[in-house]
Specification:
The chain is built from two helices and ten strands, in the order H-H-E-E-E-E-E-E-E-E-E-E. It has 217 residues and is of the alpha+beta class. The strands form three sheets. It has a six-stranded antiparallel sheet with strand order 7-6-5-4-1-10, with helices on one face.
């Protein structure tokens, strides 16, 4: 009887160990792939940095309101930001760079457009080549397991987009009906290398298919 009891105890321990291993594996997979907690973990790492080499990680941000990705495009700085990006769009590759001041602050850099996401002095989303001012610095807030991007320049300003993917004014979050339009989920991108910028606008000449010209006799 004692031998049977010891065998049962050993079996139970092995089963518990297996279940714990599977649970930890499941949690690790869902932490890396696409949960809103990804950006939260990044903010915690940013909070411990106070200068030196910046910590950088690349994300794609999915807007809860438009159900498409935030992207930064080439062109006019006032129209270069929207939430109409597709899943594999290079315009949707966003680098989150830790701020030298630490405390969870970071900048958002569009790899393809080579611009920073910023607020204007009137609380409108724009892009800039440099990010020296507080209007280009953000903090992360979590609401209902969604990521929110708060401006360091004004705590009442948040990054948001309409159901059609158009940018909203930073203080538009005060309207309750639009609060979900300031929510995002994040997707970590590993070893993202966007294509070279085209020479002639969004599409370079070599991107167009060559159409054979008929020869007339």
């Amino acid at each position: 009887m004692r031998q049977r009891a010891s065998v049962c105890d050993t079996g139970r321990r092995r089963l518990l160990t297996l279940l714990l291993t599977l649970l930890l594996g499941y949690l690790s997979i869902h932490t890396v792939n696409g949960s809103p907690a990804n950006l939260g973990n990044l903010s915690e790492q940013f909070r411990s940095l106070t200068g030196g080499t910046p910590f950088v990680r690349t994300y794609r941000l999915l807007s809860r309101c438009s159900d498409k990705y935030v992207q930064m495009k080439l062109g006019d700085k006032k129209r270069a930001v929207d939430a109409k990006g597709l899943k594999n769009s290079d315009y949707a590759l966003l680098k989150f760079e830790s701020h030298p001041g630490g405390q969870g602050m970071f900048r958002i850099y569009g790899e393809y457009a080579q611009k920073y996401l910023c607020f204007s002095r009137k609380g409108r989303l724009i892009v800039r080549s440099e990010a020296e001012e507080d209007t280009c610095v953000f903090r992360e807030k979590v609401d209902d397991n969604y990521t929110m991007l708060q401006s360091q320049a004004n705590s009442n300003w948040y990054v948001g987009f309409s159901p059609k993917g158009k940018k909203l004014k930073g203080f538009g979050i005060r309207r309750r009906k639009r609060q979900k339009c300031f929510h995002f989920t994040s997707r970590v991108v590993s070893q993202a290398t966007p294509r070279a910028r085209p020479k002639y606008g969004p599409l370079a000449r070599e991107d167009f298919p060559k159409i054979p010209v008929p020869k007339y006799r």
